[in-house]
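Please fill in the sequence for the structure shown.

STRUCTURE ENCODING:
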């Protein structure tokens, strides 16, 4: 059974938020702040404190950065991610929009805002931002944007479009474990069990097992009637993740 995907909080993005140039864009030149270097430093300090879980000081540093340079897109993008983590959604949306307004080709901001919108169930608009992110040929993470697009449209659900996006992600990054697992699940749903097994085999070569991945493998092998593989996956699930929902389902005999 397919489980709903829960987007990881954008804390995962904190390590790629530093500086606009790293995301393939151009810095805006209007209204240059009196102390742009200090603003950039405080923005980086804000990211550092976010990564350490000290959100109060991170917020202080990021607010200071925006006081020193209100036109710094990376600071808007970063503080938007922090506000999202703090569940202050109106403020998060405002700053995501500011980042994109100031730098329309800021791919990381488009990707992050797409994740935000998908969490708000604004699937169509979210997809537009994911696709906007990959338009920039200098964007360093197009596979992640395609993957996020697939995860998002799969919540509609639009499984055909989701598969298209996951395939594009895998064309760019063949070792994307999340896309490989999602493709296995889609193939399982489509009764394409051999293809589903192929994706699971690829997944286990590049990633550690998760309860969801093992449960998917169990479902596939049940349909293929491979008793040895089935027993092996069940043993792994019960041994590695005994308290998981998936393990409980297996123990109860539902799978």
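FILLED IN BY: designer on duty
SEQUENCE:
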């Amino acid at each position: 059974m397919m489980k709903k995907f829960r987007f990881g909080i954008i804390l995962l993005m904190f390590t790629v938020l530093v500086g606009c140039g790293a995301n393939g864009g151009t810095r805006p030149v209007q209204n240059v702040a009196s102390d742009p270097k200090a603003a950039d430093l405080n923005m980086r300090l804000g990211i550092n404190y976010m990564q350490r879980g000290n959100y109060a000081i991170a917020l202080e540093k990021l607010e200071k950065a925006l006081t020193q340079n209100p036109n710094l897109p990376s600071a808007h993008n970063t503080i938007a991610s922090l506000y999202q983590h703090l569940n202050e959604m109106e403020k998060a949306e405002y700053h995501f929009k500011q980042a994109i307004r100031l730098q329309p080709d800021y791919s990381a901001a488009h990707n992050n805002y797409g994740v935000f919108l998908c969490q708000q169930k604004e699937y169509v608009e979210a997809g537009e931002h994911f696709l906007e992110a990959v338009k920039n040929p200098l964007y360093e993470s197009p596979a992640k944007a395609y993957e996020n697009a697939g995860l998002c449209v799969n919540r509609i659900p639009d499984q055909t479009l989701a598969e298209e996006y996951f395939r594009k992600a895998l064309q760019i990054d063949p070792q994307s474990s999340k896309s490989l697992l999602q493709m296995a699940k889609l193939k399982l749903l489509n009764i394409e069990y051999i293809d589903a097994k192929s994706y699971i085999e690829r997944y286990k070569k590049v990633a550690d097992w998760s309860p969801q991945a093992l449960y998917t493998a169990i479902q596939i092998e049940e349909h293929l009637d491979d008793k040895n593989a089935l027993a092996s996956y069940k043993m792994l699930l019960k041994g590695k993740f005994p308290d998981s929902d998936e393990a409980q389902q297996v123990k109860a005999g539902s799978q």
